[in-house]
Amino acid sequence: MAKLTAKQRSLANLKPFKPGHSGNPKGTPKVHAQLKRHIDKYLSKTPAQLKKLNKDKLKAAELVALRLVMDAIGGKWQQTKELLERYEGKVADKVERIEPEQVDTEKVKATLRLIHGNTG
Predict the structure, then answer these.
(1) Is there a domain that residue 74 lies in?
(2) How far is CA 82 from its chain centroid?
(3) 23: in domain
(4) pTM for this prediction
(5) pLDDT, averaged in runs of 10, over the chain (120 residues)
(6) Count of domains in the chain?
(7) Running DSSP on this structure, what letter comes out for residue 20?
(8) Residue span of the structural domain in which 78 resides
């Protein structure tokens, strides 16, 4: 009998999912569901209402959700991005290969001048 490698032994233990069954039968982890519920709660309030909350009585998940919402309201880009990705999903990165001869260098230069405010 041939001796199995570690990889072969590992693969032998794998069992495919039954059709129509999830690979995560317990569903979304509870902490994620709690965080989303708290974010929903805080997104439905005005900034003034959020500032009046007694932070000493909030649980950790509530504090995290509140901080995320308050920072997003305050214009912090990373927190705004996190909220959008949590609700809308991440935007797929599309990468397109362009051959050097396909690049219109004058158009690129004009665009860069617009971005950087250079007219020369």
Answers:
(1) yes
(2) 5
(3) no
(4) 0.51
(5) 76 73 67 82 92 92 91 88 81 78 82 77
(6) 1
(7) T
(8) 29-91
